[in-house]
Structure formats: structure tokens, C-alpha cells
Design brief:
By secondary structure, the protein is mostly helical. The chain is built from twelve helices and no strands. It is elongated.
């Protein structure tokens, strides 16, 4: 005997009605029920309604354990819908009011990640939130070394540092194009000192050497040139420096 075939519209209606009935069966007059209802909205990716329901748990049942749980889940909902400014504020409030919470390492990591996700896609824009993200990624690693989030926090910190280093290189190169070599030299040297192992060392050393030579600081230029050619002898910038800086007495 063949199984009955349901039309697609009928099947969809069945699913929707089943979902509605599961929500309708929840007693939202209790702390547990109100929290469960918010969870159901979150699972359905109805994030605005979920956030509202979590807020109701906090206001209606402020002394229950579900109030604190709802506060954290509300921050997660903001994060899920990529409202990272709101997520950042929510995680910060949770961290301030619940510093001893068992999941405080997770909260700190998500706080750093909320700042990190506000970074622009290009380095020619404002990167000030990078410092905030690094602050919290460092806290995860130092204050909660056993946390499962340490490795990812360190990886995100490295990515944020690389963006900041690239921004310094961008500004220094801009000064070179403007032939403002004294300002360029300071930015290249700041990059080298502040962001070691950024991957931009050959470019920064070449730029620093050239800028120093152009400003008449031969000894300073030679110092950067020798570091470039000794530490990164096979880099394209080292070859370029050997070809170009002979006129400054570099070879």
C-alpha cells in the first residue's frame, strides 16, 4: 500500500502549525517558561522578538536565576544579528555586574570580538576599536589561560595588530609620496618598534632607510639598511635597497 502524498502547501502548513503549537504550550507566566519562550524565538532566528522576550524575563523575574541567564542570551542575540555595537554594550554591562560569573571568560572574549567585528574592511578608515578588541583578547589569555577561547582570542589579536601595522605603513607611505620624509621616518620606526613580527618589516626598513637618507641622517639610514639586508637578504626590498642606496654610501 502506497503512503499518502501530502501537497507541499499542506506540509508547510503542518510545520508552521506545529511550531506555533509548541510556543503556545509554553507557560510564560513563570520564569522558566518565559525564558524558554525567548529561547524558542531565538532558535527560530526571530531575534527582535527573542531580545524582547529576554528583556521581559529580566524585568518580570529580576530575582530568578533566569534573569541573569536572559541577560547573557540577550547579548548573544545582538551578536547573532550582527548588531555589534549593541552586543558590545550588553556584554560590557554583563561583565561589570557579574565579574565572577562562570562564563566570564566567554563574555570577555565576545566583548573583544564585538569590537573586532566593528573594524572596517579597509585600513584607510578609523581603526580605533582595534585597541579595545586587543585589550579584551589579552585579558582572555592572561586572566583565563585555561579558557577554550584563548587560541581564537590570540588569533584575532594578531589580525587586529596586523591591521594597525598596515595602517602605520599606509600613513608612512603617504608621507613619502608627499616627500615629507621626516614624518615618514617617524612612522616607519614606530611601526618597527610597536608591531614586531607584523610581516611588514622589509617594507618598513626600506622606507625608514630611504627617509633617513633623504633627510640627511646617513648613520640612521645605514642602520636601517644594514638591518634590512642582514635580516631579510632575499626580500625584494633588500635587493631594491642594494641597487638604490649605493649613492648614499650604503654598500
Amino acid at each position: 500500500m502506497k503512503k499518502p502524498v501530502f501537497p507541499a502547501a499542506l506540509a508547510l502548513a503542518f510545520i508552521v502549525s506545529a511550531g506555533c503549537s509548541s510556543i503556545d504550550k509554553i507557560d510564560a507566566s513563570t520564569p522558566e517558561g518565559a525564558y524558554q519562550l525567548a529561547e524558542e524565538y531565538e532558535k527560530d532566528e526571530r531575534y527582535d522578538e527573542a531580545a524582547q522576550r529576554y528583556q521581559e524575563v529580566r524585568t518580570k523575574f529580576p530575582y530568578s536565576k533566569y534573569a541573569t541567564m536572559a541577560e547573557l542570551r540577550a547579548a548573544d542575540v545582538h551578536f547573532k544579528r550582527e548588531a555589534f555595537v549593541e552586543a558590545q554594550a550588553a556584554y560590557q554591562l554583563f561583565k561589570d555586574f557579574h565579574p565572577k560569573h562562570p562564563q566570564i571568560d566567554y563574555v570577555t572574549f565576545r566583548l573583544g570580538l564585538s569590537y573586532f567585528n566593528q573594524l572596517p574592511s579597509t585600513i584607510d578608515r578609523d581603526l580605533s576599536v582595534a585597541d579595545k578588541s586587543i585589550l579584551y583578547f589579552d585579558e582572555v589569555a592572561t586572566s583565563y589561560p585555561g579558557s577554550q577561547h584563548v587560541a581564537e582570542a590570540q588569533a584575532k589579536k594578531a589580525a587586529a595588530l596586523r591591521m594597525l601595522a598596515e595602517k602605520e605603513l599606509y600613513v608612512a607611505d603617504f608621507y613619502v609620496r608627499r616627500k615629507t620624509f621626516d614624518s615618514a621616518l617617524l612612522r616607519y620606526e614606530y611601526l618597527l618598534k610597536t608591531f614586531p613580527n607584523s610581516g611588514f618589516e622589509p617594507r618598513a626598513l626600506y622606507g625608514a632607510a630611504r627617509s633617513a637618507f633623504e633627510t640627511g641622517e646617513k648613520d640612521r639610514g645605514l642602520q636601517h639598511y644594514r638591518k634590512l639586508t642582514s635580516l631579510y637578504p632575499s626580500a625584494a626590498e633588500a635587493k631594491q635597497a642594494r641597487d638604490e642606496f649605493e649613492r648614499y654610501g650604503a654598500n
